[in-house]
Write a structure and sequence with these properties.
By secondary structure, this protein is mainly alpha-helical. The protein has one domain. It is 32% helix and 5% strand. It is built from three helices and two strands, in the order E-E-H-H-H. The chain has a two-stranded parallel ribbon with strand order 1-2. It is elongated, with a radius of gyration of 16 Å. The relative contact order is 0.14.
Length: 87
C-alpha cells in the first residue's frame, strides 16, 4: 500500500497539537524536523503514561483509537459530582 502523506499534519512549537488519528499515514511531524514524532510524544499528546505497554500495536494506533485517559478521568469526576453525590 502506498503512503501519500496527503493528510500530513505538522506540529508547531508554540501551538496545541491536533487530535491524533489512528492511521499509520497520519502520524504528525514537527515543522522543524523532517521525521515522524516519537511514541513518547504521541503518548504525551494523548495523555497516556509514558511507560504504557502498547503490546504489539503502534502507539499512534492505540492513542488515536482511544479517548484520552485524563479526559475520561475528568468526565468521571463530573458524573460523580453532578449525579452520584446527589443520591
Amino acid at each position: 500500500m502506498k503512503h501519500t502523506r496527503f493528510g500530513l499534519r505538522f506540529i508547531f512549537e508554540n501551538e496545541t497539537p491536533y487530535t491524533l488519528p489512528a492511521g499509520d499515514d497520519a502520524v504528525p511531524m514537527k515543522w522543524d524536523e523532517p521525521n515522524r514524532i516519537p511514541d513518547s510524544e504521541i503518548a504525551m499528546i494523548s495523555s497516556f503514561p509514558l511507560d504504557y505497554d502498547y503490546r504489539k500495536n503502534r502507539a499512534n494506533y492505540i492513542c488515536g483509537m482511544s479517548v484520552p485517559p485524563l479526559m475520561i478521568q475528568k468526565i468521571a469526576e463530573q458524573i460523580k459530582n453532578q449525579w452520584l453525590d446527589k443520591l
